Amino acid sequence: MRSQAQKPRSDIYQTITSKLLAAIEASPGDPIMPWQRGGTQPVLPTNAVTGQAYRGVNILSLWVSALERGYESGEWATLRQWNEKGARVRKGEKASPIVFYKEITVASETDGDDGEAETERRRFARGYWVFAAEQVDGYQPAAALPHNPITRIAAAEAYFAATGAKVVVGGTQACYRASTDTIHMPDEARFLDTDGRTRTEAWYAVLGHESTHWAGAPRRLNREFGKRFGDDAYCFEEACAEIGAAFLCARLGIAIEPHPDHARYIQHWLTVMKADPRAIFAAAAKAQEAVAYLDGLQSTPAQSFAA
Hints:
- By secondary structure, the chain is α/β, with parallel strands linked by helices.
- The protein has two domains: 4-36 and 146-296, no CATH class; 46-137, no CATH class.
- It has helices at residues 9-25, 57-69, 79-84, 154-163, 199-215, 233-251, 260-273, 279-296; strands spanning 46-47, 75-78, 88-89, 96-111, 117-132, 136-137, 166-169, 175-177, 182-185.
- Helix 1 (9-25) crosses helix 7, helix 5 crosses helix 6 and helix 5 packs across helix 8.
């Protein structure tokens, strides 16, 4: 009789899918974010070079950008200013708009009573584009968390490195950003030991989730769901990525049993999309395809499943 380690990978994926489905049917509850999202108080935006605080509408503009992208350093500067500081804005990063008002003195169109030309002060608005400290390399924000790295797992590190995906660490957001073709992970120090899962396991599970998104990008698998899911494609994609995370954790021997939060997250998106009962199997098929793609990028066979 074959051991679990000797079973075909497809058998393992089917086993994990069955366990996820059983957990979903048991209503495991709401998903738990495995990292701290940071403080609730917005940080007053300041210029990273001059130290001057931004004012007026610029504060609101930069707060919106920070909230959307998970930035919390509060430090911003133009491309030229970052270059002067020895830092480099990463290729493809999206700038945020600000407005700078300047007063100038101009000659009046009419002369004064004494026949001499009069002057007046006028305000001119000029737009600029700035980048947050989280968007540059070579700079450490003043508000950065104390260094607290996760415990590395050599096999997992080698696996994800072999994919060639660029991973940017910093801030409070985990996502795959198509515009820059980069995976973004929160600061390692934000990850916690929660709900029976170590912070190391949580880190690699989140990285597996985002790597599944990365694999499905147009320039790679070009993952499409057709008309079946329509407006619910985003929800289906998230369910697919989380199943991919569960598969990758098993693939790398990090956790052969899917963590309850995988089921919670998948259940959340399937509930939102009100999917048909077999949606999870369709998502699992796409997730398995993504893992197979990531496997194909390895120069040596990845670690076999734990027995």
